[in-house]
Every structure is written in structure tokens, then in C-alpha cells.
Amino acid sequence: MKQEFTLSIYSENHVGLLNQVTTVFTRRHINIESLTTSESAIPGIHKFTIVVFTSREQVNKLLLQIEKRIDVIKAYVFTADEIVHQEVALYKVKTESLLNGNEIERLVRQYGARILEVTKEYTVIEKTGHKRETQELFEKLDHFGVQQFVRSGRIAVTKLKEELLSNYLKKLEKEKSLLD
Amino acid sequence: METQTQTKTKEAEEMKKKRMSGSEAVMQSLLHEKVELLFGYPGGAIMPVYDALYHYQDKLNHILTRHEQGAVHAAQGYARVTGKVGVCFVTSGPGATNAVTGIADAMVDSTPLVVISGQVGSALLGTDAFQETDVVGITQPITKWNYQVKRAEEIPEAIAKAFYIARSGRPGPVLIDITKDAQFAQFDFEYKPVDKVRSYKPKSLVKKEQVAEAVRLINLAKKPLALVGQGVVLGGAEQELMDFLSKTGMPAAWTLLGLSAMPSDFEQNVGMLGMHGNYGPNVKTNEADLIVAIGMRFDDRVTGNVQKYATNAKVVHLEIDPAEINKIIYADVPVLGDVKDSLPMLTEMASKNSHEAWLGEFKACDKIEDQKIIQPELHPAKEGLTMGEVVRRVTEQYDDNAIVVTDVGQHQMMASRYFKFKQSRSVVTSGGLGTMGFGLPAALGAKLGQPDRPVCLFVGDGGFQMTIQELGTIFQTQADVKVILLNNNFLGMVRQWQELFFDKRYASTELVNPDFQTITKGYGIACEKVTERDNLDEAVEKMIKHKGAYLLEVVVEKEGNVFPMVPTGASVSDIRLE
Q1: ipTM of the complex, rounded to two decimals
Q2: Are A122 and A89 in contact (CB under 8 A)?
């Protein structure tokens, strides 16, 4: 059964790593739903957050293939209930549509969105939330004409008490000393 | 006194930090990694490295091949017979792209290589400069690791890391791309060998629980079958394998790359797995109640239809690479780690056993195969020589320590089936990638790696012509390589498939060949051509006794087939005997 998975991938911060990671998906013809990269809490370690829609078996294999890349430190997979996640969306509408009635203002309040910039010609609205929420706002705003719409990739942190990566790095040190 | 010691230490450190060019640093780094022999081909972007090599010729023996593909295959042959890392130099652009086939071959067959490619100057990167290609991008999916060096200071660390990664864990090829300006630049050289990389875990500690569970299954099994792969050879675990098999008494079959990991005549060795493997191990895979996979990866040429594979068996999988576990065949008990570590743990805990009745079933299969396939192949009723009989005659005349190199195709399967092995690392063949043209340069590399062992190559007339130019390298190096050219004037394996599955529509498989004798003589290499069975033994003897390179061309049956055969998509138990 296919479902949505969020992958957290930790790697060294080298040129070309994004390519190394995405090739693993491309080669198996798995579409990446969203992708974000940033620094992690640990200096020098980079984090990729990737959302895919696939089976549990396939995602487990993907994880191992990603970890096989030398510069990847560790990869984890989560279902939506194991993480706190968020996306941000920007909507550009004509300021004129805002002035013709208070419907847009009502939507902004209702969806907990905020207005970032207003000029004579356009207004930029921002909403953070899950994809379903930002999509819903888009559909409602689009009645008044959305000129531009963009949604970021997912960012996520785990709900776990322990920090997986730090623990892994400690364990690795211990194992290496045992192997030597 | 103290100050004197301190001064001395400081001096020693200064000595270590010698000022030199990036190119010389490449030489020094290779010497630190104990490299003695390397293969390559010069060109514009790697010229500074070759210039530095000029001053190191007494320490680094560079073999100039006739094509970069040949350089990589030769390095593969060298690595496969010695267990050391094979090293190549290639230039940028076409030099690097010519190396790609060999690198891909090394990746899929887990061969440790370090390929150093020249690159255009860093200021020219991304400008479509002359002979610029994105080598790091191209080789990313076919290397274990690759890296582009743009500053001379990075060279020692990049090379140290390259060697460590290439040879540790599951070995593989590493490519280091060095820009021309980094080759020229001067810096203070210092070499620190690498023995760990934070993001890389070459192998895992074997888990006792996994071993215990595996042993439980082994002790319970009535019909266990061990599948022996190259992991045994790469881990140097041949003795550990024999101990394990002797104690458990289970039959053991080898994969193509597992050939020679145990002696051919070992009582429990039941032969080769896979598409053209032996009858017994294929059929019995589906009767076994336990499969113990040892350093092998369930390639599709081994499993046939995976849905109908090992249908009655639980699977224990001993493997160093976590990504191989459950990739193709679900492992009821994975034993992650180097088989060199895990096998002795299994042996210690396993009960002493013998499986005589079960082994007897394999013997019964051998009889069927012998009667239906082996005897007709070795003693054909027809006039034409068969590939199998040539291989058998050659193996009979060689000492036990001969290394067999093959190209890809029918002759490869015949050599695998009919050659007899006594010691490990006696086979060099292109398994996973199936690279025609691999044989000739790989044989050269094997001979240079093991000069004291006889090296014989079996090659078809198709594959031979893919890298035939390496006869020039063999001539130049005077390497004592014996080439047995099995000439059927056909791309035999493709023709066999056309015969069996495409109603004999022989599309583009018949070859109009040149006179190989004239060509070989042109390269200054001794040769003979045999067309009659009666002359074969004498010709083989002459070849073996000849000092130096030799080509024995044997004209074989034009439309011979390799059997048994598991057709694509069929189950291993549906193996065809005719």
C-alpha cells in the first residue's frame, strides 16, 4: 500500500550532494513530492527533508541506498504522525481585489494567514501550515484571482524525546573503537 | 637534551612537510599507499601528473595501455588477483568518458580502484572548455565515492580518503578529478593516511543474536544449501568458509564471482548457480529448506524468477552491505557484517552434521547433467570442436595455480563450467556488468599482478575485437599472457538467444572476421590456429610451454549452445537441459 513518508537525511555539506541523493530516487522512478535542504542543529551537518509517496518496503530500500552514499551520515523515515511538520505558501493577489469587499480579509483572518507586503498593484499573503491547508486557502483566494502561488517543501522535526542523529554519532564512535 | 629532542622532532615534521607541486603530491601520495604499478593514458589535462611521473619511474611502474577502457580493465584484473587497489590515470573529457565502462564494471563487481582523472583548469570549469566533461557528475552513480580537487592542498587528503574508501567495507571504485591548476600549484605536502570517515561505516559488528538465530535454523535444517559469493574472496574468508562447510556438512554452490573461493573438487562443492550454472544447485534451490547466502547479492542471473525462487526455504543472509539485505530476496535472518567475522561465529555454535542423503541428491543431478550435457560437450559426436572441450583440455594441462580470465559470452560460461580451480583468486571475469572487451586488458593486469602464476584468457571473436588494441600493450610489456581465442565467427550468446527465443532470426550476429593470426603476428606475438581436434592437445601444450605471450586461436562449432539454461523469467527449477 502506498502512503506518504517524510525522509530526514543527514549528510556532509559537500558540493553535489543533492544530486547524489536525488539520483537514488530517479533511478527507481520515484517522484519526489517535496524537498528542502538546510543546515541541521549540528555544525557542518546538512539536512534534507524529502516527502515521497510510496510503499513501506520501497521506502526502506530507498533509505539503505541513500545511506550507502559515502557522504550521507544517516537517513530516517517517518510517517506524518511521528513528526511535527510545516510548509509555507505565498500568494500574490491584486490589491484591487482586496479593496472590493472584505472577503479576502476574512479569509486571511480565518486561515491565520498574514499580509507581508501591500503596494498599489499587488498584495502578498503568507500562510504556514500543512499542504492541505495552504492548498485550501489557494482555492478560496483563487476566486478573486491569484497571480502567483508558491509553496515550499516540507520541513519537519521528530516528536521523539531522544535525538536520533546525536545518539547515532555517539554509537558510531563506540562501534568504531570496538572494530579497531 | 630536551631542547635537542624538540628540535629534532620539529625537523622531522619539517621534513614531512616538503614543498612540492600538486602533481608530485599525487606521486608521493601513491607511494604512501604502497602503489607500485598503475595503468593509464596521458592527455592535455593530466600532463603535469605525467611530468611528475617521469621522475618517479623507478618507483612507480606505469603501464601505457592503448585505450583508457583498457587501463581500467587492466587495473581491475590487477586488483582482482592481488586484493590490492588498482590505480589508473586518465585525462579529462574523452579520457575520462572512455574509463566509464570500466568504472561501472568495477562498481557492480565490487572491485577496489582509484581512478585519477585530469580536469581543465578551475577557472574554465563550466565553460565547455576543450576536453571538459562533468566527470564527477557522470561517474557519481557508478563510483563508491568521487571528488573534484581544485586546490593542491586537498590532494593528499583526497587520495588518502580514496584508497581507504576503495578498499574498506564492500570495495569499489573511487574517482578523484584534479584540475590542471591544482596539479601545477606548489604547497607544503604532508600525508596522513585515512582510517575513518565520519559519514561512512564500512562494516558492522556482527550481532550475536543474529548469529544465534542463524545457527538455530542451520541446526534444524534437513536440506540446507550454502550459496558462496565473492564476499568470501573479498573478505579473505576462504578458510573460514571451509571450516563452516566442513562442520555443517551442507552442500555449497558458488556464484560466477564466487568461483575459486573453494576448490572445484571439494566434496561439498555442488557447482555453479545461475542461468548457465549446474543442474543440481539450480533445481535443488527450490527443494532446499534453508538457504545460507554467504557474501552474495541474489543477482537476477542467479535467481531467475524471484517469485518462484527458493520457495521452500528460509533464508539466512551473511552480507557486509546493509543495502543488499532484503533487496531482492527477503532474509528471514540477516547476519550483517564481514563474512570473515561472522562465519567463525556460526561455525563455533553450529552442530557437527553431515547431509549425505541430501548431497546424494545433488550427485544424482550431476549424473543427469553429465549424461545429457557434459559428455556430449566434452566428447562431441560432431566433427567441430566445442568450447567446453577446449576449456577442459586447457585446464587439464595447466598446473593448479593458473588464473583464468574471461571475456563475456558463451566462452565465459564454458570457462566457468569446465575449468577446475584449486586456489582462491583464480578467476577474473566481468559478472554484473557483462562487459565485452573486458578480457584482454584484464588478463594483462592479472599477469602483472601475479607474475608467478600462469594467466590464461578465454575470449570470443566478438569481445576480442572490442579491445584488440591491447595486444599492443601486451607486446610492449612482454607480459606472459596466454590468449585462447574461441572463434565461431558469431556473437555466440546473442545468436543462442536468437535461436531459442527469436526463431533463429540471426540479426547482426554473424561476424566477418579478419585473419587474427596476421594481426597477432603484426603485434609481434606468437600464435597458432587450430581447426582439428587431433591437433588441439599438442597446440595447448605448445602454448603453455612457450615463454611469453601467445595466442591460440581455436575454430569452434559455429552454432554451439551453452546448456543448461534458465530462460529469462523462468524459475531456477525449470532449468532447461536442451
Answers
A1: 0.91
A2: no
